Amino acid sequence: MVLRLATWAKQLGDSGKQVKEIFRGDYSKMSPAERDAAAEKLVRDCALTAAALAPIPLPFSEMLTVTPLQFMMVRGLGHIYGYRLSPNGVRETLALVGGSMVGRQLTVAALKGMLPGLGSLVAIALDSAWTYAMGRTAIVWFRSNQTASPEELRRVHDEAVAEAEAKMPEEARSALVKARQGKKGE
């Protein structure tokens, strides 16, 4: 099980360098399809990186690892689509496309503390799926020239979470289902 998860996380390659390269690119001369392809690659790389960072066995470690990654991803997506976002602009965009990040981080921290081992599997699943969904939603937001409705953004977000969960290794999906069942039983 751990080997399969490690293999899955290993697929991220050298994503940190790739994220930094996003800011060096001139996307203004690219076709919309080329920009979309660059944006999709950034989102996939960041979701895989989030999965690799999630198992750190410290509560709230995501706030030091995954949250900055998501910040850079949204900033990079803005850059790809021609937006120069200030830190406040990134925070506003994250609030719009990411929902309650604090609530999600509290959920992951609680699961890591209450379910040693299993909590890390759930953290991998949740952090990766949420990062992927946040990125897909941000793409729609920037592609629409920041005019997509809240309903459209919610729909895209929910579809992206379901898509990400469907691609997870079976062990991660099982851990996520067990965690959700435990949460409903409380």
From TrEMBL:
Q: What are the Basic and acidic residues biased-composition ranges? A: 164-173
User: What are the boundaries of the region Disordered?
Assistant: 164-186
The protein's topology relative to the membrane is: Multi-pass membrane protein
User: Which Pfam families does the protein's record reference?
Assistant: DUF697 (PF05128)
Subcellular localization? Membrane
Query: Where does this chain mainly localize?
Result: membrane
InterPro entries per UniProt: DUF697
Sorted alphabetically, the keyword list is: Membrane, Transmembrane, Transmembrane helix
Q: What is this protein called?
A: YcjF family protein
Source organism of the structure? Chitinimonas lacunae
